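About this split. The held-out portion is used to measure sequence recovery: a designer receives only the structure tokens and must propose an amino acid at every position. Recovery is the fraction of positions where the proposal matches the reference. Here is one held-out target exactly as it appears in the evaluation file.
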């Protein structure tokens, strides 16, 4: 089953709430429809992207000549197989995943408070430098596109830590994630979840329209990107409707009806100041 909309306003799909209209928005409920859709789009040379909860995406303004795909029901599940195997659909909510895993004694508390889905978290290697969800990957299932060949694929992940920067060349749509959990005392996991949520609430602007960290941290540099931007004196600085968060300077907010262009110009101002002050080139995270 597919729900199809034409000339769809993509700003409604993202947490930052900006962007123009796309050619098609397709909500795809099951595997057969997904494969058929990807075949059709590929054969007709229609470019597409997948969106999950849209908490780490910035669309351009104006008309976007692409199809935007969103996975529905059949991809929103979580199963606990013979320990330590956990199977999640790509559309499974990340916070539900963490809490249900904790109930089964698996510790993913380092992801507590991060919005989004399991699929989005794998694609973005969510977590951080110390602990990433992708360190636990055992297998993934996805729809692969290679030139005009479209097929369902399953791959074994041999060295999970290599997938910190997730890059599977022919992956078009991630559908299922098989992980190897790590057992821990349940009470301790829930305690860590509560603590991590508390830290996130204190440090991140969770009540504004934003897309999480806008720039990547620079590996091995003694300052985080937010700290660098802060040291440039840019907290609260705004351009158009876009503003640098007062709480965490690596979060750019849609403050008052910002366009994606406002956010991009603001991001360029940040890049300029950081380059001048620290001689570092910032890379986009969104
Ligand atoms: C307030 C706030 C706080 C945040 N804090 C953190 C944090 O502390 N740490 C952290 O790591 N992140 C953080 N983020 C970023 C974000 O929440 C995570 O990266 C999240 O895992 C993205 O999940 P999503 O479902 O929203 O993915 P989306 O934003 O929808 O997609 C992210 C990317 O993955 C691709 N994608 C998604 N699903 C699929 C799929 N099934 N197949 C193929 N491609 C797919 C999309 O095309 C896109 O490129 C934060 C975001 C916000 C808004």
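Reference sequence for scoring:
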């Amino acid at each position: 089953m597919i729900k199809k909309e034409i000339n769809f306003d993509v700003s409604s799909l993202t947490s930052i709430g900006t962007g123009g209209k796309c050619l098609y928005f397709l909500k795809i409920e099951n595997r057969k429809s997904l494969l058929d859709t990807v075949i059709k789009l590929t054969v007709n040379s229609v470019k597409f992207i997948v969106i999950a909860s849209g908490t780490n995406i910035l669309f351009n303004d104006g008309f976007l000549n692409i199809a935007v795909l969103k996975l529905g029901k059949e991809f929103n599940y979580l199963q606990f197989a013979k320990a330590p195997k956990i199977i999640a659909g790509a559309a499974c909510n990340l916070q539900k995943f963490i809490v249900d895993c904790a109930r089964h004694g698996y510790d993913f508390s380092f992801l507590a408070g991060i919005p989004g889905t399991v699929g989005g978290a794998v694609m973005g290697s969510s977590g951080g430098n110390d602990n990433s969800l992708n360190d636990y990957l055992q297998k993934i299932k996805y729809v692969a596109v290679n030139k005009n060949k479209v097929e369902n694929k399953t791959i074994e992940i041999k060295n999970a830590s290599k997938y910190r920067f997730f890059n599977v060349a022919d992956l078009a749509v991630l559908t299922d994630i098989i992980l190897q959990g790590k057992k821990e005392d349940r009470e301790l996991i829930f305690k860590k979840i509560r603590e991590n949520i508390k830290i996130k609430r204190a440090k991140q602007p969770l009540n504004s329209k934003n897309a999480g960290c806008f720039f990547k941290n620079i590996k091995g540099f003694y300052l985080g990107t937010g700290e660098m931007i802060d040291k440039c004196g840019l907290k609260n600085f705004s351009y158009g409707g876009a503003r640098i968060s007062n709480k965490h300077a690596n979060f750019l907010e849609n403050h008052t009806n910002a366009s994606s262009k406002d956010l991009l110009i603001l991001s360029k101002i940040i890049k300029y100041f950081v380059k001048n002050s620290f001689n570092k080139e910032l890379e986009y995270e969104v």
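Annotator remark: The helical segments are 31-43, 94-103, 118-123, 186-203, 225-231, 260-278.
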